[in-house]
Every structure is written in structure tokens, then in C-alpha cells.
Specification:
377 residues; six-stranded parallel beta sheet; alpha/beta; 8 strands; two-stranded antiparallel ribbon
């Protein structure tokens, strides 16, 4: 009898796994199912529900609950695939001796984990987290979460909202602050386009983002330093990482975004986030191993510097274990949120970075991940 594999997909900072028909990992899940079937492998792919900005410990507990609910077969191998913060959740879950709660039997399942794959994960933290600690940053985090959901549902933001938001962030000044009523108005306008039932779901989701932001300080370089000191690799588990590096905002990337006003405005959002992510001190990042260095140099032509990032996480911060793939992509490209509407189902992008990442790159990346998961299993 063929061995069945369980693959748990752990979402990141914008931590919705499934809001109705909105799937964070929709394209990734479909690819896993099709590729494993083509290889004759019995697999069940589970999308984990997590608290969006709850602490890493809370989110690792959510991962355990998903495993308990879906993994019914004894001794079948488990594989954890985490995007962004989800990679940290996966690392903590398998860390020997971790305590997630008095009534949580983590070891029962952690000892069955064979691989941990992280994508665009801030293993050394991200300066953007420090920005989100501020009042403007907290409001902006909620709004960006709603933007992501809205674009996945409707394809793009209303142009009026995009214009107002782009104007707001280009005029924002760290010393002068902001007018919170502008962000509140944008919230109300976007929520009004959803059904009453979906609005209630979104209000609950965004309430979680606003009420429990324990995760944010943990993702600063200082917070992650403490996490890394206490989170140990589990013997026998293979760790691999997918690295993303996007192009710095420039005249070239603006031209690449095209003449569409919507694309230009969302590119402004990308430039705003990129500028706050590239302030990473190199001293906060552990030097890569020779094998990791070789993989990065082969992919990018040179070892990425401290300013290289994907718009959310510094590129060098993402390196952990074996480098499975290093691609030119922004933070959401690798999980299928890029601009290719002609594909069925369509790929939808709201963070217009000009990375050039497309379906061909997506399939090549995830084929490498499948190869790693099935290695020696």
C-alpha cells in the first residue's frame, strides 16, 4: 500500500487561509494535488487557519489544531510548508520540547514531520515590523489585509480608493503623522462592496488583526533574535527555503508597470513598503553557508546585499537550511498572487512590483519543492 503524505500549508502575515471562496494558498494547493497525482503519490493538502497577527506560539498552536483535525492516519509523514511568518510557525512547531499549551500534545505529531519548507520567511526578522508597531503602521496593516482580500475577490481595488490611498502614503510624513479618518473612510468604502454575511466575516478577521498584534514585535530583528536563540531544529527533519528578491522601485519598474493608472498607484504602495523593508542591518543576519552562498550567487549573479528584499522581507533574512529556489519575485508572487489573469483559474496581483514573475516560474519553483518533499520518503 502506497504511503500517504500530509502537506500542511501555513499562511503568513495576512493570515486568512479561507474566507469563503478566497483562498490564500489556492494556486499552491491546486498545483500540489495535480503534481502529486501525476507522480502517483497519495496526498492530502490542508490549508491551516491561523490568527492573522497572533504570536508565533499562538499560531503554532493553530497549526497543531489543524493537524489534529485533518491527520487521521497513524505514521503517515507530515510536511509543513509555511509562507512568510508561517515558516516560523512551522519551525516552532517541530522544535524539540516546545510548550504550546498545557493540554497540547505537540510531540505526537511533531515527531512525524519529515520536511519544513519556508517561503519568503523572515528568519532574521524584517524592519517593516518595526514600522507596523506605530499607530499609522497598525492602521495600515489592517487596510493592507483588507486590500488583499478585496483584490482576490474582485480583481482590483476601485480606482477612487487606489488614488486616495496612493496619495495618502506619498504625503505621509513620520513627523507629521496622519489623519485616521482617511483610513476609516477607505475601510468603509471597501467593506460596502461585500455582502452582509461576508462583511461580518471580514470585520471579525480585521478585528483579530487590530486586537491581537502580538506577532508584530516578534518579527523585528531584535524579536527574532530571541526566537532563534530558543527555537531548535529537530534532528531528522529536512529544512529548505525558497528565497524571493524583487527589483528595487525605479523608473524602469514604473515603466514596466504600464500606463494603467491602477498599476501605477499600486506600484507606489510597493515602493512605500520596499523603502521600509530595505533598512536591514547586515549585522542582524547570520552569514550564509558556502552552499547557501553558491545557490544565491547562481540565482542572482551576486550575493544579495542587506538592502535586497521582496518588498516585505529582506532577501538574506529568508535563507534557512537548503536553498531550494531563489527567484526574482515579490513577497506574494511565490504563492500565486501575480498578474496573469488569462490563466484558469486566474492569477491576481495587487502588489505591482514589476518582478516579471509568471506561471512558468511558479510551476518551476513548486516542482522543486515537491522534489524536496519526496526526497528519501
Amino acid at each position: 500500500m502506497a504511503t500517504k503524505h500530509y502537506i500542511l500549508l501555513v499562511p503568513g502575515f495576512f493570515g486568512f487561509a479561507n474566507l469563503g471562496e478566497l483562498l490564500y494558498f489556492g494556486h499552491v494547493r491546486d498545483y500540489f494535488v495535480a503534481e502529486m497525482k501525476a507522480r502517483g503519490v497519495d496526498v492530502e493538502v490542508v490549508q491551516v487557519l491561523t490568527h492573522p497577527t497572533g504570536s508565533i506560539r499562538t499560531r503554532a498552536g493553530d497549526l497543531l489544531k489543524s493537524i489534529e483535525a485533518h491527520v487521521k492516519d497513524d505514521d503517515c509523514p507530515i510536511h509543513l510548508v509555511g509562507h512568510s511568518t508561517g515558516g516560523l510557525d512551522a519551525r516552532l512547531f517541530v522544535s524539540p520540547g516546545v510548550l504550546l499549551g498545557d493540554d497540547m500534545d505537540v510531540e505526537r505529531f511533531a515527531r512525524r514531520v519529515r520536511t519544513v519548507v519556508t517561503l519568503s520567511t523572515p528568519h532574521a526578522g524584517t524592519p517593516l515590523a518595526s514600522f507596523f508597531l506605530g499607530l499609522f503602521g497598525q492602521k495600515l496593516l489592517q487596510l493592507l489585509s483588507l486590500f488583499t482580500v478585496y483584490v482576490l475577490r474582485f480583481g482590483r481595488l476601485p480606482l477612487s480608493v487606489a488614488f486616495r490611498f496612493g496619495s495618502l502614503i506619498t504625503r505621509w510624513d513620520e513627523q507629521l503623522g496622519f489623519r485616521p479618518t482617511l483610513l476609516d473612510q477607505l475601510f468603509e468604502q471597501l467593506l460596502g462592496d461585500f455582502s452582509a454575511e461576508r462583511r461580518e466575516e471580514l470585520v471579525r478577521f480585521l478585528g483579530d488583526v487590530g486586537n491581537d498584534a502580538s506577532l508584530v514585535p516578534q518579527l523585528t530583528p531584535e524579536g527574532i533574535d530571541l526566537f532563534n536563540a530558543s527555537c531548535q531544529d529537530r534532528p531528522g527533519v529536512r529544512y529548505g527555503s525558497v528565497i524571493t528578491q524583487a527589483r528595487p522601485p525605479s523608473l524602469r519598474t514604473r515603466l514596466g508597470a504600464g500606463l494603467d493608472p491602477y498599476a501605477q498607484i499600486t506600484h507606489t504602495v510597493y515602493a512605500f513598503l520596499y523603502g521600509r523593508t530595505q533598512r536591514m542591518p547586515l549585522t542582524a543576519i547570520a552569514p550564509p553557508t558556502p552552499a547557501q552562498t553558491a545557490a544565491l550567487v547562481e540565482a542572482y549573479g551576486a550575493l544579495p546585499g542587506p538592502q535586497a528584499c521582496d518588498g516585505i522581507v529582506p532577501t538574506r533574512s529568508q535563507v534557512y537550511g537548503r536553498v531550494l529556489a531563489a527567484v526574482r519575485a515579490d513577497h506574494l508572487d511565490a504563492i500565486g498572487h501575480f498578474d496573469q489573469p488569462a490563466h484558469r483559474p486566474p492569477h491576481v496581483d495587487w502588489l505591482i512590483s514589476g518582478s516579471g514573475f509568471r506561471r512558468l516560474h511558479f510551476e518551476r519553483l513548486w516542482r522543486t519543492v515537491v522534489d524536496f518533499i519526496l526526497l528519501q520518503t
